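Exercise: predict the fold of this chain.
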Amino acid sequence: MRCLGRSLAIVLFILIAPATACAFWLFNANRVALDANNYKNALQNSFAYTNLMTAVIQNFSSEETTPRQAGELFKKLPPDAWATLSSKLMRAAEIDQRINEDIDALFNWINGKTVTPEILLDFTALKQRLTEAGMSDAMTSLVTRLPRCQTDQITAITDFKETDSFARLTPCNPPGDTEKNTMKAAFTSALLIVSKQLPDQWNLLDDIINGQPTTPINSPDNNHVDLFKLNQFRSAVVLQGRLLTLLFLIPVALMCLIVIVTIRSFKALFRWLGVSLVVSGFFSLIPVFILPLGNSIGNRGINENGAANLDFGEATQAITVLVESMVQSIINALTLSVLLQVAALIIVGLIAIFISVLILPPEDELGEPEAVNSVPAVA
């Protein structure tokens, strides 16, 4: 009977580790994902600003709507050139304030304080800088960041006219001053054209809800996001936040079953409890080594398939940029939070094992036959 109880206890012990790991990661993932500060911190870095600038310029300089195909010139810019351009045109303080207000509005909506989230990007200051006379310094910095021009590229710059399509040019750094001035003038003209395409305010929610779907609304394959789907998402977030706390009851229940089937002393209790906590703690560390790989694969999937799976209208690329930055911030905060809690879990487990060593083993219980024979005779 005792052998059967220990066998069952071992099976329950094996289940405790994955149950504890799932409880820790899911609970912390929900807690970190619903913390507005993580999203605010995600966008307070130059990488996010550069990508957001790229998304804004490319969204509003598409080939179909922009005169002289101005967008073609920006599609060929290397990443370091985009970093230079964004640092000159987008002020970090202004973006921080606007995005923080948008994040607060989003979480007010999730918490049920508002009916719809008001997610706005104000381009008034950006449009003004695109038309300022002081753009010469920014264009000089931009051109110097470009790779050296080849012979055919220099020829295209020399022959470029003010009415030509910008698709004829390849962004590069020519050796001659005349060609440099032509390239800087081309970028200045292209940015001026793009500034006329930009609205004073860009309401991302309107693009998400009112963007043209790629399939008919009544089609079962339609992935277009509407207000009804957004409210469904909010309800799911609120519900799962209330249910995930109950996950910790699973390992607690398994430990209680072990107590019932095999534990008969405090020494055994602390020994089983300590080993369970230590093993569960180390098992919970496994996702720490998997998350960076999963994040890399997820970002690649968003970049390659995001626009095809969901139609956000003109907001698609900007939403992708924001999601990538926020996911990275959530993973960093989630990993740190779990590491601290798992460290505490392992320490408590080691303390429990140490206590089990200090407790003296119980005296052997009398077997059933000995118990019967030990009954004193009646005089």
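Check your answer against the key: The longest strand covers residues 120-122.
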